[in-house]
Design a protein that fits this description.
Elements lengths: L1 H9 L6 H15 L6 H21 L1 E6 L4 H6 L3 E3 L1 H8 L6 E5 L2 H10 L4 E3 L15 H10 L5 E4 L4 H4 L4 E3 L4 H7 L4 E5 L2 H11 L2 E3 L6 H4 L3 H7 L6 E5 L4 H5 L3 E3 L1 H10 L5 E5 L2 H10 L4 E3 L13 H9 L11 H15 L2
Parallel strand pairs: 1-2, 1-3, 3-4, 5-6, 5-7, 7-8, 9-10, 9-11, 11-12
Length: 343
């Protein structure tokens, strides 16, 4: 890491001192809320300038999930959001190339919706414990065991799994979709915690699977109590958390719900979002009037994208950076994703 930092300090990519100083101030106006110093911003300013110049020159649109690091979110991303928001945004992108900063299934979703566009990832093989927990064959077995039950597939899955589903969902719209489906029995894959939590709020019979988000599943009732700094801390848990955590929370939802709460809230209470720290960092910058408690929940896979490999991908994209999906699978997966966007 020291070597990379030294390299950053020595490379200016031909930008003038004024250009770099202006970029430092732009970055500091955001990242300063997170404790970044002017020197920290100076270290990355040539990189963010180079990336932003290259993306315009090459016609690249950068989408970044809220769990990315703040230098990506506030330094180079064109759009930031949750899985649902980014799925919708992917259909509106005018550029011919999308570079997705997130885990690989998210980039796959962008490709499913935009087969004519080139979709890039800065690093290949960025997995997800949920997406890696299930295959299309596993879904086919469930469909055979529970004939007639509609399959709701969490977006945190591969294209192969989406191709077997009737409709996809995200944490932002899962409840709405399940409530509107004309069936009392639903197959929900692959997040077990989310399936149990949805069964409680919808009153429907949810056939669950054994998948878990490693980051959210680690939080127990005891760990939640440790995270709360005060008894009156407002706790807003993610649907992927254990049911025991959701039961003692004030609110439950996805990061989209948490974002809407932050946007409209005037609470003087401390707010604890039980989700990945990257999202909390984003909220600290965008809504500095609120008092957010750190969750210190880190998804190691979401942190695999960085300014160095993003720049390398933009300068010289390799075959391994390009997302490709077999057309038959893509078309079937498109139906499930497109059905989700109708809700």
């Amino acid at each position: 890491m020291v070597v990379i930092e030294n390299q950053i300090e020595q490379i200016t990519f031909g930008f003038t001192q004024d250009e770099i100083e202006n970029e430092v101030q732009r970055l500091y106006s955001k990242l300063g809320h997170l404790g970044w110093t002017l020197n920290d911003c100076l270290d990355i300013a040539p990189l963010t300038l180079r990336i932003n110049k290259l993306k315009k020159k090459k016609g690249v649109h950068i989408l970044a999930h809220s769990y990315q690091t703040p230098d990506i979110i506030f330094g180079i991303a064109d759009n930031v959001g949750d899985s649902l928001g980014l799925s919708k945004k992917a259909t509106e992108v005018k550029e011919d190339i999308i570079l997705f900063c997130g885990v690989e299934f998210m980039a796959e979703t962008a490709k499913i919706l935009n087969p004519e566009k080139t979709v890039l990832v800065p690093k290949r093989g960025i997995g997800c414990t949920l997406a890696d927990s299930i295959t299309g064959e596993d879904v086919r077995k469930l469909k055979k065991k529970y004939p007639g039950a509609p399959v709701v597939c969490y977006v945190n899955t591969t294209a192969d799994v989406k191709a077997e589903a009737d409709v996809c969902c995200t944490s932002a719209n899962a409840r709405k979709i399940i409530e509107k489906l004309d069936s009392d029995t639903i197959i929900f894959v692959p997040d077990y915690n989310m399936g149990v939590n949805l069964a409680k709020v919808t009153g429907k019979k949810i056939i669950t699977y054994r998948g878990h988000c490693r980051t959210h599943d680690r939080i127990t009732k005891e760990k939640l109590e440790q995270l709360k700094k005060n008894e009156d801390t407002l706790v807003f848990s993610h649907f992927e958390c254990k049911p025991e955590v959701v039961e003692i929370s004030d609110l439950v939802g996805g990061t989209g719900d948490m974002h809407r709460f932050s946007k409209s809230s005037k609470t003087s209470k401390e707010v604890l979002f039980v989700t990945e720290q990257g999202f909390i960092d984003r909220m600290k910058v965008e809504y500095p009037h609120l008092k957010f408690v750190d969750s210190n929940m880190i998804c190691p896979m979401m942190k695999q994208s960085n300014l160095i490999n993003i720049l390398e991908c933009l300068e010289n994209p390799k075959e391994e950076n390009i997302i490709e999906i077999e057309e038959g699978i893509r078309k079937r997966a498109f139906n499930a994703v497109n059905n989700m966007l109708k809700y």
